[in-house]
C-alpha cells in the first residue's frame, strides 16, 4: 500500500509491517504488530497513522512518528478481522469480521503533535447468523428475509469500503450479498 503523500510503500508480512522509501530504495522502519497473522492494512489520509487487522481478532493503531509498537490495540470482534478502512474525508474508520459485524469508529487525528488521536467506538452494524443450507452452498440460495449478511461456513463480512464523498459503507459478505449502509 502506498503512502498518500510521501514516496513510501507499506508491506504487511505475516506479523510485521515494513515501510520502504521508494526514492532512496531502502527500508525505513519495521513495525511490530503483536498480531499472529495480519489480514488487512490501511493508512490514514494524513499519512501519519495506520491500522492493521488480524485473524486473531485484534486491531492495532500505529502512529508513524511515535513507536514501532502499536499506540492502541482494540479487541471488539469475536472472530477474525477481514478488512478495515479509513474514510477519505470524514474522521471515521471501520472494521469487519467473520463474526458478521461491522464496527464503526470515530477517529479524530489532531494536527498538534502533542495530542494523541481520539478513538471512539460509534456503532455496530450486524447481519444474521445462519448455518449453510444445501441450496446456498451450491450457489442457489442467497440472503434470507430479515438479515443483511449471514455468517456462512464460519465466514462473515469479507470486505468493506467507504463512499468517497458521503459517510456510506459498502460491504461484501461470504453469503454473496453486497450491502450499502447509510446513516
Short précis:
The chain has 183 residues and is an all-beta fold. The chain is 2% helix and 47% strand.
Walk me through this protein's architecture.
The protein is an all-beta fold and 183 residues long. Helix content is 2%, strand content 47%. It has one helix and 16 strands. It has one helix at residues 134-137, and strands at 8-12, 16-21, 26-32, 38-43, 49-54, 59-63, 72-74, 81-86, 92-97, 101-108, 118-126, 128-129, 150-151, 157-162, 169-173, 178-181. The protein has a four-stranded antiparallel β-sheet, with no helix packed on it. The protein has a four-stranded antiparallel β-sheet with strand order 8-9-10-11, with no helix packed on it. A hairpin with a 5-residue loop joins strand 4 and strand 5. It is globular, with a radius of gyration of 17 Å. Mean pLDDT is 85; it is low at 129-146.
Strand order of the largest sheet: 4-5-6-7
The total of helices stands at 1
SSE pattern, N- to C-terminal: EEEEEEEEEEEEHEEEE
Q: In angstroms, what separates the terminal alpha carbons?
A: 29 Å
Structural class: mainly beta
Radius of gyration: 17 Å
Globally, the shape reads globular
Largest sheet: 4 strands, antiparallel
Query: Poorly predicted ranges (pLDDT <50, ≥5 residues)?
Result: 129-146
Mean pLDDT: 85
Q: Considering DSSP H and I runs of 4 or more, what fraction of the residues is helical?
A: under 10%
Percent range for β-strand residues: over 45%
Q: What's the count of strands? A: 16
Amino acid at each position: 500500500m502506498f503512502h498518500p503523500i510521501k514516496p513510501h510503500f507499506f508491506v504487511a508480512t505475516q506479523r510485521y509491517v515494513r515501510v520502504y522509501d521508494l526514492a532512496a530504495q531502502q527500508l525505513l522502519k519495521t513495525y511490530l504488530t503483536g498480531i499472529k497473522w495480519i489480514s488487512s492494512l490501511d493508512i490514514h489520509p494524513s499519512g501519519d497513522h495506520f491500522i492493521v487487522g488480524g485473524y486473531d481478532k485484534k486491531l492495532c493503531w500505529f502512529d508513524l512518528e511515535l513507536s514501532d509498537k502499536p499506540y492502541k490495540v482494540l479487541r471488539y470482534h469475536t472472530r477474525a478481522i477481514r478488512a478495515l478502512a479509513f474514510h477519505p474525508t470524514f474522521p471515521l474508520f471501520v472494521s469487519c469480521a467473520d463474526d458478521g459485524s461491522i464496527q464503526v469508529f470515530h477517529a479524530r487525528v489532531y494536527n498538534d503533535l502533542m495530542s494523541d488521536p481520539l478513538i471512539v467506538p460509534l456503532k455496530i452494524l450486524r447481519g444474521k447468523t445462519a448455518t449453510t443450507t444445501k441450496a446456498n452452498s451450491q450457489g442457489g440460495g442467497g440472503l434470507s428475509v430479515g438479515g443483511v449478511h449471514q455468517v456462512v461456513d464460519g465466514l462473515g463480512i469479507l470486505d468493506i469500503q467507504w463512499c468517497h464523498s458521503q459517510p456510506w459503507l459498502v460491504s461484501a459478505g461470504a453469503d454473496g450479498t453486497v450491502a450499502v449502509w447509510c446513516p
